[in-house]
Every structure is written in C-alpha cells, then in structure tokens.
Amino acid sequence: MARTVKTSPVVAERFASVDLNGLYDALHDDLSTMEFTCELDEFIEEFGYKSGAGFGSHSPLTYPTWKDTPSIVLDIISRYLSLGDEAFEANVHSIPQEALDVIDEAREAIGDDQDKRARFDHELSLAQKTNAEQEDHDFHLDQTIVALLRLPCIEAAARLHEAGVITERDDVFFIKMEELKEALTDPAAFDYKQLVRARKLLHKFREMLDPPATVGGDSESTPAPARQDDREDSAILAGIVASAGAVTGIARVIPNTDVVPDINPGEILVSYNAGPMRTPLFPVIGGLVLDGGNVLLHAAVVAREYKIPAVFMTGNASKVIEDGQTITVDGSAGIVHLR
C-alpha cells in the first residue's frame, strides 16, 4: 500500500496535506483515489480485528481495532513512505534464501546418518508449523475475540453518550458491567459522569505505580542501574541477545499505551515490551531495546527476520535511556551503549 501511495500523486498529496484523523474520509470522498481505497478496505477487512498496544498479545477492550479506527493503518503506512523500496525488497527476498542455506548447512553437518536427518527434518517441520500456529492463534483468538467483545461496548458507549450519561465515548470503559446495564436501562438513575471522573483519577494514580519485578522471596525489585563503560562518557545496559547485529541511532522511548509509536526511519525503539502491534513498524526502525521479553518473543522472531539488532531483558532501559539520546545497540553481545 505504501508503494501505491508513492506511485499515485493524488494519494501522496492527500497523505501530505490531510490530518490522519480525517485522511480516511478524504480518500474515500475522492474518486481519483479509488484504487488505493479499494486496496485499503480489503486490507482492513482481512486484518481489521488487530487490536491492543505494544505488550505481547495484550489486547484490552480499551484499545481501538484497525477496523473501528482506520487512521491506525494509515499512520503505519505513512511511516513507510520515506523508505527506499530497493533496499527493503532486497532484504525481504534475501532472508528466505539465507534460511534455506542454514538448513542445508545443518544437513551437511549431520552427514549421511539417515535417522538423524529424518529426525532433523521432522523437528524442523514441527518448529515451522508451531510458529505459524502461534501467529494465527494470536490474531484469530487473542485479538479477534477481544475485538468482537469490544463491539457491544462501543454500541453502549454511543447510546450513553447520546443520552448525556457520559462525557466521552471511551468513558464507558470506566463503568462496570452491572452499572452499564443499569445505565442503559435508566440513564438518569445515577451520576455516572462523577463516577467516571473519580475512576479516571484512580487509574492515573495506578499508572504511576512501579510494581516489583517479582513477588515473594528476597529478589531485588529494582533493576541495577546502567554501569560505566570502558569508554569515556559512556555507560552500558546489559540484557540478552535477541537479534544479532549492531546499530547506532536516536532512541525513541515509547510507552506501551501508544497504539502507533511515533518513530522515524532508522531510530531505535525502546519500550517496556513489544508484541504484534509493534512488528508492522519493524521494517522502519533501526534497532530494538526492551525492558523485558525473551528470545522466543514475537518481537524477537520478527526482529531476526528483518535483521534488526535487538537486546531484551535489560530490566530498566525505558527508564534509564532518555528519549532522543544516541545509543548503540549491540545485539550480538546483548548490550546497549549509552552516549
């Protein structure tokens, strides 16, 4: 879709001149952009139930889906527009061949032992099948079920907002289910606006809390600070190797509540964790640093596929690294150099 935008002067002009919140309607109101809007609508119809923020498969009802907020998709597309197609395509096409080369090397290392070769092929096919099933499970079950549960909440929000029971439609997510039923039955029975205000304040307070890394035992709840590097004016954060390679760039510290990270091509995404809602932007970023995660995390697998240097389990990178700071991600060593 980004290529379609680049090849269409009319669509490119709309992306450049219209605010994202009004872009979907502006494109659909213009017959000259029909080729792109048809492609966009087909994409949203297939993947529109993607939802949630950046944390793993975490998809709460409060986060919009691509179907009910198409500006999310348009925002992601806009991040691709400054990328060079040649380098991107070369990388995408080289990865499958590299995988085949590694498999051939493994078979050569096994030698002529047919039993070992058969076992290797069997284990490989299981691994490939499992990865695909995990991806399908996350989308078709975890995200789609939550997205479908969100639909009646959105309808209830529209009715309550129209009746003046709530100030904003998203206020519905601060009302409990039994209260919601009562509000829909008798909107004037209770001052839900005051209730929502109180719960919003409580929610903001709880967001500021810093939970311990572990519960029980003598484990240290606060991660160790960055330690001094051998180089002058430099410190390092240690983590685990998630994806090999090294890159130096500008760090963008992104809260997990941000649906689409505000990040430019080549910048390094730093966050508490990352999941399927972050990976559509992986072709754009230069590197990835997470407080948590593991080598089999969705983000780790995709980072390796796109050859994005990544370091996970740093403990406190999103708190130690400042937004806009220059850092070096050494994915091969599992460390981050802070400048």
Quickly list its features:
339 residues, alpha/beta, Glucose Oxidase, domain 1, 9-stranded mixed sheet, 11 helices, 11% strand, globular
Please tell me about this protein's structure:
There is one protein chain. The protein is of the alpha/beta class and 339 residues long. Among the domains are: 2-80, no CATH class; 163-207, no CATH class; 227-338, Phosphohistidine domain (Glucose Oxidase, domain 1, 3-Layer(bba) Sandwich), CATH 3.50.30.10. Helix content is 47%, strand content 11%. The protein is built from eleven helices and nine strands. The protein has helices spanning 2-7, 9-17, 20-28, 34-47, 71-80, 85-110, 114-162, 177-185, 192-207, 298-305, 317-320; strands at 227-228, 235-238, 240-243, 246-253, 268-271, 287-290, 310-312, 326-330, 335-338. Strands 1-2-9-8-4-5-6-7-3 form a nine-stranded mixed sheet, with helices on one face. A hairpin with a 6-residue loop joins strand 1 (227-228) and strand 2 (235-238). The protein is globular. The mean pLDDT is 87.
Helix content range: 40-55%
Runs in which pLDDT lies below 50 for 5 or more consecutive residues are none
CATH class category name of the domain at 227-338: Alpha Beta
Read across the widest sheet, the strand sequence of neighbours is 1-2-9-8-4-5-6-7-3
What's the layout of helices and strands?
Elements (H helix, E strand, L loop, with lengths): L1 H6 L1 H9 L2 H9 L5 H14 L23 H10 L4 H26 L3 H49 L14 H9 L6 H16 L19 E2 L6 E4 L1 E4 L2 E8 L14 E4 L15 E4 L7 H8 L4 E3 L4 H4 L5 E5 L4 E4 L1
